[in-house]
Amino acid sequence: MIGPVLVYALGFGFAALGIALAMNLWRLFKGPGVADRILALDTMVINAIGIIVLAGIANGQATAFEAAMLLAMVGFVGTVAYCKFLLRGDIIE
Amino acid sequence: MSGGVSLPEILVSALIVLGGSFALIGSWGLVRLPSLMERLHGPTKATTLGLGGMLVGSVAFFQLVKGEWTTHELLVSLFLFVTAPIAANMIAKVHLHQLRLGKQPGPAGQPAAPRDDSEWATYESPKAGTPGCFEDE
């Protein structure tokens, strides 16, 4: 079902997202401020969604995209909640 | 087809390679750029665009190769394209707030304190007449 070109493309995509996750992890540890760490976590969530999408293509089943949708929502809510807590000292006022 | 490679497969492969490249470039910008306001550009633009490319590639794969019509990817990409600017705005506000509190040095020093009639604030409660103030004037 999956031809040789697509296999190479998927391999490239997985490798690129893995390297991207490693670089985000470096920024998460190194980042001088707390805003850098929030940004690194947000980017890690986006890259994890990309890995789930590529895994869905590689497995040929569309059930993985519910997980991608959930991860997108939870990642956004987590980022906003952490920013809100740092800005206002409270999440829901 | 020459070599047994079909046209939809080439299309899906190109979209996946493009998306992976943009995601990698975005994360490289996160590592490489010097200050947070510049670092925000990488993930919010390049990584979101890369993920959009991969999601469109996934839609094309399931439609053209498998013959199934899926809309979850479009929903995910719509959600991401709406939420990425909001998250970036919140992170920039946290950065400005930390700068104003003096918790980390900025390249241009500490930003000026807001005027009393300023339109936006990160810490104090909303002033009368600005959006977000629900008290009667």
UniProtKB/TrEMBL annotation, chain A:
Pfam family, one: MrpF_PhaF
InterPro entries per record: MrpF/PhaF-like
Subcellular location: Cell membrane
Membrane topology: Multi-pass membrane protein
Main subcellular location: membrane
Keyword Transmembrane helix among UniProt keywords: yes
A GO term for molecular function: sodium:proton antiporter activity
Protein origin, superkingdom: Bacteria
Membrane spanning residue stretches: 6-26, 38-58, 64-87
Keywords annotated in UniProt: Antiport, Cell membrane, Ion transport, Membrane, Transmembrane, Transmembrane helix, Transport
One GO cellular component term: plasma membrane
Keyword DNA-binding carried by entry: no
Coiled-coil zones: none
Family as reported in the entry's similarity comment: Belongs to the CPA3 antiporters (TC 2.A.63) subunit F family.
NCBIfam families registered for this protein in UniProt: PRK06161.1
Protein's name according to its UniProt entry: Putative K(+)/H(+) antiporter subunit F
UniProtKB/TrEMBL annotation, chain B:
Biased composition (Low complexity): 104-113
Alphabetic keyword roster: Membrane, Transmembrane, Transmembrane helix
Sequence intervals crossing the membrane: 12-31, 43-62, 74-92
Record carries keyword Membrane: yes
Keyword hit for Transmembrane helix: yes
Highest taxon in the source lineage: Bacteria
Species of provenance: Erythrobacter dokdonensis DSW-74
GO molecular function list: sodium:proton antiporter activity
Official protein name in the record: Monovalent cation/proton antiporter, MnhG/PhaG subunit
